[in-house]
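Figure caption, in words: inputs first, then the predicted bound structure.
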Amino acid sequence: MARLVVVANRVALPRERAGAAGGLAVALREALRRNGGLWFGWSGELSDQPSPTPQIVTAGKITYATLDLNAEDHRAYYLGYANSVLWPLFHYRLGLFEFKRDLFAGYLRVNAAFAAALAPLLRPDDVIWVHDYHLIPLAAELRKQGVQNRIGFFLHIPFPTTEVLTALPGHEQLVEALCAYDLIGFQTATDLRAFADYVVSEARGDMAADGTFMAFGRRGRAGAFPISIDTDEFARVAARAAGAPEMRRLGESLVGRALIIGVDRLDYSKGLPHRFEAFGQLMERWPEHRSRVTLMQVAPPTRGQVAQYRALRRELEGLAGHVNGKYAEFDWAPIRYLNRSFTRTTLAGFFRLARIGLVTPLRDGMNLVAKEYVAAQDPDDPGVLVLSRFAGAARELEAALIVNPFDIERMAEAMHHGLTMSLDERKARWSQMMEVLRRNTVVKWRENFLRALREDTAEKAAA
Ligand code: ADQ
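Bound structure (adenosine-5'-diphosphate-glucose present):
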């Protein structure tokens, strides 16, 4: 079978500890190992004069090829266009996106440089799988380099509706570049529909029911491929973690109080201020929960160089301080707010201890924390997932308590409902969600995507 080439902004290098890699990195590595593979992307390093040829590291059957960025490209491509333009816009935050032409130019420049560095490493029958919004123009740039291989793309974040997307200057150029892929994967049917609408109403193209599209003179296929987790493995890790010293410490510190847990990157898409306010309302409207419930929010800072992220951090510190100042007792603080990360194993253990998993993004491609929380539960005493309707995961985890994160009152009610829910109802809801997660794992996701990408290859060859 053909070699697989994975391209992503960041490369999970082999020196990163096995336990630290998430389910996605593990699933991709497995696929690369199978027939030999190449993982290509940014090294995560900055240098004054980066070499245009990648650094190569080989580990077993996998070759890792990485490029450094210079400070200007990092500013324009990564901090700028990817994270201050596409990220807010694709998460429906028109008020936060800051378009400047030089950022778009930097984005295209880095994509072109990546393509120029990758092209010489490719073999004619390689299948190429590109990941995420940093690299939308990569296929178009590879085509300019004469690359004719099958190239697939998976978008990990939402694809916005046409009205939102057209606010982006140069949206035609971006979507035209996207259409250079042979297969475009989205997280949900909603994202796929948004893309189809753009193709038909803006690009005046065609899209058939099977996802085949014709736009900008290019034919391709698009589909929904909801990403997931390694369900059974995560459940095993959580069960094993239950006996670890951290869990004992957490358990002891709670002295019988119920735990509500939130685990997110510190990002404005995750709806953390709304969540803290809703928790404040829970304390206000149901005083019986005071001194009996603790919200633990784990949120390590990300993208600290972007102003909006610094502002969010300050806002959350203020909100947590406000709720704690109002309701804390000398032996109890309502909110434990931790700006740090934990290992996957420790998080899995925390999830299992928590009566409620609070996953309330304002917009999220999928949200794997929701799935991990469910997988981590004790089948005999499962907790309750409170889940935003705007997370891709809500399409699959219908047995969660689904909330609109803009409706603070309703979120507080959902927490109250979760805290008072009968064991029978908790078990029934959890079993339904677990069934979904056992059916659709990260391995299934990977296989479905690669099958679709390769199927087309076979069809082409037969034609
Ligand atoms: P993220 O926005 O990072 O990912 P999410 O899917 O929730 O969001 O998390 C990805 C992984 O990071 C999970 O395995 C999770 O456990 C881990 N993680 C999150 N917060 C953490 C924390 N505080 N400490 C340690 N680990 C943490 C993007 C999209 C999502 C999409 C994923 C995968 O924004 O919508 O689900 O990619 O496609």
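The first helix runs from residue 23 to 35.
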